[in-house]
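queue> pop job 88
queue> type: inverse folding (structure -> sequence)
queue> payload:
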């Protein structure tokens, strides 16, 4: 998978897309309008109401983001569209095995 050049995208334009890959604090988002791939990070701290999660984003989430003018090929996720459905799974590491 290669990231395409984002020079054709106007800086600060609000774009929509789907998270297709999550690696640490960076996410690969496919733009809904063009299918172009963007390397994105989260803006500030996002919190999920009622859920205890260390990472509020999952692959498949729809997001709104803007391309940064200073960093070539980088964008910032400004809004996470609420999920229509999700699966809750308990962590294996947080259970008490004896």
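queue> result:
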């Amino acid at each position: 998978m290669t990231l395409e050049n984002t020079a054709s995208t106007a800086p600060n334009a609000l774009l929509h897309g789907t998270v297709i890959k999550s690696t640490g604090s960076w996410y690969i988002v496919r733009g809904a309008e063009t299918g172009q791939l963007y390397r994105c990070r989260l803006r500030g701290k996002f919190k999920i109401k009622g859920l205890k999660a260390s990472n509020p984003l999952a692959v498949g989430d729809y997001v709104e983001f803007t391309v940064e003018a200073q960093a070539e090929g980088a964008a910032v996720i400004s809004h996470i569209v609420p999920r229509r459905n999700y699966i809750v799974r308990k962590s294996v590491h947080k259970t008490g095995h004896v």
